[in-house]
Amino acid sequence: MTDRDLAPSFIEDVSALPTHAFSHRSLTWWGIMAFMVIEGSFFALAIAAYFFLMAQEQQWAPGPWQPPGLVAGTLFTLVMLLSEIPNSMIKKAAENYDVATARQLLPVMTAIGLLLLVIRGFEFNSLHVLWYESAYGSIIWALLFLHTTHIVTDWGDTVVLWRLMKTPHGKDPRRLVDTEENALYWRFVWLAWLPIYVLIYWVPRLFH
Amino acid sequence: MRRGGAWLTFLLTGCNGYQNAMGGDGAEGANFIQLFSVFMVVCTIMYVIVAAALLFALWRRRSAALVVEDRKHHQTSALVRPALFAWTALIGAGLVALTIASFFTDRSNAAEGSKPQLILTVTANQWWWDVEYNLPDVSRTVRTANEIHLPVGIPAEVTLKSNDVIHSFWIPNLAGKQDLIPGRQTDAQLLPRKIGLYRGQCAEFCGTQHAQMALDVTVESKEDFLRWYAAQLKPAVAPANPQQHAGYRYFTTRECASCHNISGTPASGQVAPDLTHFASRRSLAAGALPMNRGNVYGWVADPQSLKPGSRMPTVGLKADELHSLVAYLETLK
Amino acid sequence: MTPAERAKQPPADVARDGPKLTGAKLDKRLAATWSNPPGFLGWLSSVDHKDIGRRYIVTALAFLALAGTLAIVMRLQLSKPDNDLVGAARYNEIFTMHGTTMMFLFAVPVMQGMQIYLTPLMLGTRANAFPRLNAFSYWTYLAGGCLLWVAFLLNIGPDIGWFAYPPLSGPQYGVGKRTDIWAQMVTFTEVAALAAAVSLTATILKQRAPGMSLGRMPIFIWATLVTSLMVIFSMPSVALASGMLLSDRLVGTHFYNPAEQGDALLWQHLFWFFGHPEVYIIFLPATGFVSEIVATFSRRSIVHYPIVVMALVATGILAFGLWVHHMFATGLPRIGYSFYTAASMAVSIPTGLQIFCWIATLWEGRPRFQVPLLYVIGFIFTFVIGGLTGVIIAAVPLDLQLHDTYFIVAHFHYVLIGGAVFPLLGAITYWFPKATGRLMSEALGKTSFWMIFLGFQLAFFPMHIAGINGMPRRVYTYPAGMGLELPNLLSSLGSAVVAVAVLLFVLNLVMSARGGRAAPANPWGGASLEWATSSPPPKYNFLHIPIVNSLAPLWDAGEKMAVVHGLRIDDRELLLTTVVSAKADVREPSAEPSLWPFIATIALTVMFVCSIFSPWALAIGIVPVAIALLAWFWPKSPEPEREPVIS
What we know:
CATH topology of chain C: Cytochrome C Oxidase, Chain A
Shape of chain C: globular
Largest sheet of chain A: none
Order of helices and strands of chain A: EHHHHH
Largest sheet of chain C: 2 strands, antiparallel
CATH class of chain A: Mainly Alpha
CATH topology of chain A: Four Helix Bundle (Hemerythrin (Met), subunit A)
Mean pLDDT of chain C: 95
Oligomer: heterotrimer
Structural class of chain A: mainly alpha
Number of strands of chain A: 1
Strand order of the largest sheet of chain C: 2-3
């Protein structure tokens, strides 16, 4: 029996269904979700490695130790948290088919991303330990590096979306779905940062 | 139950008595045989049930099969659900029983090892074993390599360390294995119950010559052990004739002394096996070769061809140097 | 009209399938829409899941042959004591390549390949989700495999075991680039596996035929969903571990260096956190094959479907709680070990339930003893032995004797070959007619089955004895007089039988592909949707998307096949349905063939291979990768094209 041998019985007409949808009705949303789980697992395991290495040591961080400078890291955290404001505005604009607002705010997110990368550079500089000095140095550089790759890739995505939205592609509602999902991913990027911030800047201070 | 290993021995065509998990010559080794037998009985029963059920399912007469040809392919007979519960309960009960048996064996092993009377430290290297007997009186420490002597019936604790990569300390006749991990200290408890000669082998892949990293184990009476220990405490035998002297001179002034130690001589290298009582051992090169004159010649002349990759270089000795070295080494009983 | 409203209006003059456009006319239009461009570039740019699935399977079988050849060399060396056929260093490379190839380049890819091929067909849809990502995943897998094997043939292959424990694999003792190549191959294959898993998960959740609620999915689809989620949660662990190893070796970090507060056991935890779920990632799809074959060849649905599904999910979850049982000899606290013993024993319960359901199905049905069912029977007899030795080594006092001996080698070959390869061979025989339109030779199939089943027992059963007799693993030779001669000789003889059997199987594949008996759409009388389309399926899979209202659509179909209509036919379009109850929801465009996935893999390969030599390669190499990804994702045209309607 093939679908040619069995005569088709046309039960349901799907021609009126939309060609795009937001949130869990969108196929790419599931792709983004899956990537967030993958990267979240990466972070969770790196955090577990941090605790594992910490548990092996009498003293964490091992001496002689200079605490990582708080200014760059805390500034970074503040800017990340504040960036959620334009981010949420973009997300809502996309869901409301408000192309104009999205077009205005995407360059803002791009600028914020660039600012964050600059601050991140200062963060690396103010850790006061190098990756090859000890396992402590290695793991905090690893955590910071992993998170930086996320900032870079989401910033890249945002730049591309910004240019894309300025073209006629911007009117395609599927691009608005992309915009909404990129905003969702940005939330993951700053949420993942919060525990890492604590582990790098505060936990060693607590144990000294 | 301990000699219930005999039924397994029937399967083990030509098994050996010296590096064998069914040897049961130590407390932990004996516990292994007992627990293994319990597991084998339970597992065999489960296997027979599954195999029988499968065979019966395949070959029964099926006039009343519930199949798609009769439009009954979604139906299930009434007996299936209770059978499922029974099967689940059986598996659950079996696993609980086995877990409890395992737990009790663990406890027994821990109890038997809880009060050691003899402490050793074994440090693993690529590809040899550094063995040290630790006594409160440091002047009575004995250091040897690639061999362990143990007094029967006396619990011993072995502190395990590694100088390079991960190795594993395994004397199957006596006990299970423990890894030696650089940067960590683990320990093994040995309570030998039967006098005999056994063999241990490294059981964690540690590089090129992992396969040739074995250990001679001698379990003997307390008197014999103390006699051996006393002999080990003595410094090396002095060379008695000119050839042995030549060997002694070569050893202590040329390459050998930079790695090997012979107590009572200037040779005090720490990175290779201690050779003070080398000739009293049953094997050389960590169990790779039996101890005999031919093998000593072969090893000293060209270790790289016998154990390629090992850390002892092939030096290119001249014939007379070789003869005198071997003559000297043979005196180190 | 607001943009929102406009977006929701269907263009009025576009061709759609339906009562006016069906049969041969529709076939021609759909075939044109879903075909690949011609020539070699067309072949490179294919995003058809059937092409990608076939490529995965053929490539994986090639790696199986390579790794199997290495196994024969190992068995020749071990056939007698103190043998000098292969020296120590070379042997260590060979067993490393054998294990690494089997685990990373054969076992997982072949299962994913089968999943990629079968999933859209079983779900009643035209393509996978993210077809280009799927294509990328294949090319990346191939690149990783080539990296490893080219290195081996150039004599810079890895020699540290498939599990690469530091410090042996670290910068101090693992000299040269061998280990770096191994670690980077892991990166390639892990990226590939993750990409495939993401595609499969999204396909299963969103692209099922209308009416195929979660409770009506074929069991193989459940197995695919569970394994894909397991890949997503576990592969990052090995990627992180190997990344840290590369970093220790290349830029001087100290993750695994005890001298600078690192820890060799960190590697073991991260590796086995991946490594244990990995074996279930290999095993669970095989249980999916078994369920499908048992149902078809018993002529009835699997007994207690919900139990089988729960067993799959439970196994998938439990598999993450077992990993420390690989570390029982490392001296961790014994109290912690008890938990892992209990969990390792408990994981056999769901599998025991699946076995019950399979046997009950055979019992209630009317078994047909054709080759696929023979492999299932061989699987049950063999895998259960491996499962039971698994219960044995779950007990710490037993494992401490048996760990790292040939007993373990026996155990895992029983569960991997018995538990995964036998079902795989049955599955290939079962779905071969669907994929090629020809049946495999039943006579040759039965011969290779019996040879491989009996040869396997001869090869691997004696290894239990060798392990108990004191033979450790990963040894290039063993001394005479230990009673190891006979078990090793038997194993070597058995391995020769297995090798011939595999050759016969491959011969059967090749001969049948050319001249096998023609196969109808449903040669075995199966119940699931893949049997509703022709053999081989057309490029577009189904003329019309079917509607499903039972677990066994083809067995419960009336005289007509309920279908949906109204999808575009001159652009690639498929139907998204809701996650739980599969109600038709969105019409989704599907990606056209594209060279960018292939180009992206080339760029990624250059970046990863160069980064073995310098970390700057990551910073520089990311640029071509980014460009390739940009070209890949840049959308094609802003307005959907309008097609004239055919009257």
